[in-house]
Amino acid sequence: MKLSGAEIIIKLLERQGIDTIAGIPGGANLPLYDALGQSDSIRHILTRHEQGAGFIAQGMARVTGKPAVFFATSGPGATNTLTAIADAKLDSIPIICITGQVPLSMIGTDAFQEVDTYGLSVPITKHNFLVRSAEDLLEVIPAAFRIASSGRPGPVVVDVPKDVQMAMVEFDAWPETGERGQTEELIPAEIRRAADMINKAERPVLYLGGGVIQSDSAAEALTLAEKASIPSAMTLMGLGVIPTDNPLCLGMLGMHAARYTNMALEECDLLVAVGVRFDDRATGKVPEFCPNAKVIHMDIDPSELDKIKTSTASVTGDVLDIFKALIPLVEGNEREAWNTQVQALKDDHPMLIPHAEDPTSAYGVVLKAAELAGEAAIVCTDVGQHQMRTAQAYPFKHPRQWLTSGGLGTMGFGMPASIGAALAAPDRPVICFSGDGSIMMNIQDLATAMEYDIPIKIILTNNNALGLVRQQQDLFYGKRYFASDYSRSVDFIKIADGFGINTHDLGTSSDPAKTLEEALAEPGPSLIHVPLSPDDPVYPMVPPGAANSEMIGGEKNV
Ligand SMILES: Cc1ncc(C[n+]2csc(CCOP(=O)(O)OP(=O)(O)O)c2C)c(N)n1
Ligand SMILES: [Mg+2]
Questions:
Q1: 180-211 confidence digits (pLDDT tens)
Q2: Hey, CA dihedral for 219, 224, 228, 231, is it positive or negative?
Q3: What is the 3-state secondary structure (H, E, C) of 479-532?
Q4: 467 lines ligand 1 (CB under 6 A)
Q5: Distances in whole angstroms, Cα of residue 75 to Cα of each of 102, 122, 364, 408, 445
Q6: Angle at 345 between CA 343 and CA 350, to 5 degrees
Q7: Ligand 1: distance of its center to the CA of 393 in Å?
Q8: Is 460 close to ligand 1, i.e. is its CB under 6 Å away?
Q9: Would you place residue 556 in the very low, low, confident or very high pLDDT band (cuts 50, 70, 90)?
Q10: Integer distance in angstroms from the first to the last C-alpha of the chain?
Q11: Angle between helices 336-348 and 259-267 (to 10 degrees)
Q12: Residue 178 in contact with ligand 1 by CB distance below 6 A
């Protein structure tokens, strides 16, 4: 066979089963685009910004659990991808970014659109490559897939100089595709010790994170919780692992958790932490997190163990393998006293949902949309109050149903991620809860949703403010609102209309519930505008740096 570097890349992507690539062409990746144009099996989604392409790839990867690919040209194309890549790194999402680069001989000369993509991406990728010969692509592309998906998943950058894309290579056979590698064998003594600690515990709590979702072991997590009657809290990234309506579900822990969730953690005698990294938004002040508990930490990435909180015992391995080995060793136990105690916390310190019945209110629109969209819906958010309210109130039922920027907290994530989700799961409803600040960060890709007729339903809660920032100023900066209110408002209906998106305004509708229903049911992309007051904090809230026990607001009868 004799093919160009660019043709080799595209053929290898086809062999990996890639069917959709988002991106933008430019001088340095035009050979790659020329080859992509010849592909019968890969469709290209032309975005309006490379960050949008990165979040579309993330949306696909988060829904399928498989690596997704996006393209950018050199220089500004590459720098525009960085936020989406850093976001994937912090949330352990397998995406592969293939960038064009100036020709090898021009690297280091400040050539037109030259930037050191390799250097810039080192700290925000799991691995990165600068490909120096077209033959190397036969190794590098499968390696990129193997690395992105093996162990703890993460983003990989492959930077390909233009002359490498154009060079012709003669070769005999295609390499094996890059697949998720085997994880290390579990150490039986670690499993036995963990099981023994769970069996002896009187007041255990499961603390479940994104790692449970990444390892596709939500069913096993539920089995463990139910077998040993262990109340279970989830991180922002772990939502969906335990169905909200399960009596053992404690919802999300941490900064915007229900009071009872943080209180149950306060009272537990054993914290079973699985696929989590003890993020400060979950733990609050670490020394005061679960102060009376022994800790078992289980994770695929040994560098997470004892990083933030010293564990009493730890288990390294794929969380799915761990659950499978652990469950038979854990004794069935009703734990009546502990569950009665937790139920009393739930009764005395419930999650209060103000105006739950009003579909034009901040929480009410989340609940109404959930009711209308049904269990199969995929829910994306941007970053802010609307994100936290959705995390608190949405009745999640399944893993991979909830797509949010957890670690980096990137405004602008939601809308393009929802495009990716809808591309990966065309038969499922996809809702994106966004804010008036966040949507502006990638608003250009409304054009992409329109062009490809992608039926995302954007519920835009508009408080004419950077609400979550304003809330901190309200509570911790003497109500000195600076740079968090927009002094004039934008007409989002007109903007979305200009992009060719269906629009609806719950603020002016005479029957908002019906309007929402129609918007969710109509074909194509829609924007549903929901005007809100800026003076509406998300409670409860743990002040930044404080212990979770010091949460404020959201108390019953106050
Ligand atoms: C790219 C980026 N810049 C700044 C921030 C800091 N930040 C966090 S929440 C927020 C406000 C978001 O406003 P909006 O999208 O309107 O959501 P709301 O809180 O009003 O619901 C800001 C500025 C961020 N998370 N991401
Ligand atoms: Mg806002």
A1: 999 989 999 999 999 999 999 999 999 999 99
A2: negative
A3: CCCCCCECCCCCCHHHHHHHCCCEEEECCCCCCHHHHHHHHHHCCCCEEEEEEC
A4: yes
A5: 9, 16, 44, 23, 21
A6: 100
A7: 19
A8: no
A9: confident
A10: 75
A11: 150
A12: no
Residue 558: pLDDT over 60: no
Q: How far apart are CA 33 and CA 240, in angstroms?
A: 38
| Ligand 1 center from residue 441 Cα (angstroms) | 10
Q: How far apart are CA 145 and CA 149, in angstroms?
A: 6
Q: Which contiguous run of DSSP H or E holds residue 70?
A: strand 68-72
- Whose atoms come closest to the Cα of 441: which ligand? 1
User: Rg (Cα) of the chain, in Å, rounded?
Assistant: 24
Tell which one of 386, 433, 434, 466 to mutate to probe ligand 1, the residue whose CB is within 8 A of the most ligand atoms.
466
Q: Residues with Cβ < 8 Å from 263, sequence gap 6 or more?
A: 345, 349, 549
324 has pLDDT over 90: yes
Question: Would you call 157 helix, strand, or coil by DSSP?
Answer: strand
269, amino acid identity:
D
| Residue 405 beta carbon below 6 angstroms from any ligand 1 atom | no
Q: Is the CB–ligand 1 distance for residue 463 below 6 Å?
A: yes
Residue 505 has pLDDT above 90, yes or no: yes
Structure-token match 């310190």, residue found:
349
- Cα–Cα distance, 517 to 529 (Å, whole number): 13
Sign (positive/negative) of CA torsion 155, 386, 442, 18?
Answer: positive
Question: Among 62, 76, 74, which residue's Cα sits nearest to residue 421?
Answer: 62
**Nearest listed ligand to the Cα of residue 440:** 1
On whether the CB atoms of residues 161 and 104 are closer than 8 A, the answer is yes
Around Cβ 452, how many Cβ atoms within 10 Å?
14
Ligand 1 in reach of 438 Cβ (< 6 A): yes
How far is 460 from 388, CA to CA, in rounded Å?
A: 14
CA 36 → CA 8, 14, 21, 146, 147, distances in Å? 10, 10, 9, 22, 23
Which atom number of ligand 1 is nearest to the Cα of residue 382? 15
- The Å distance, Cα 463 to ligand 2 centre, comes to 5
Residues 6+ apart with CB under 8 A from 511: none
CA–centroid distance, 385 to ligand 2, in Å, is 7
531 lines ligand 1 (CB under 6 A): no
Length reported for the chain: 558
CB of 432 within 6 A of ligand 1: the answer is: no
Q: Does 148 have pLDDT greater than 90?
A: yes
pTM score: 0.98
CA distances from 368 to 247, 371, 374, 513, 533 (A): 22, 5, 10, 7, 19
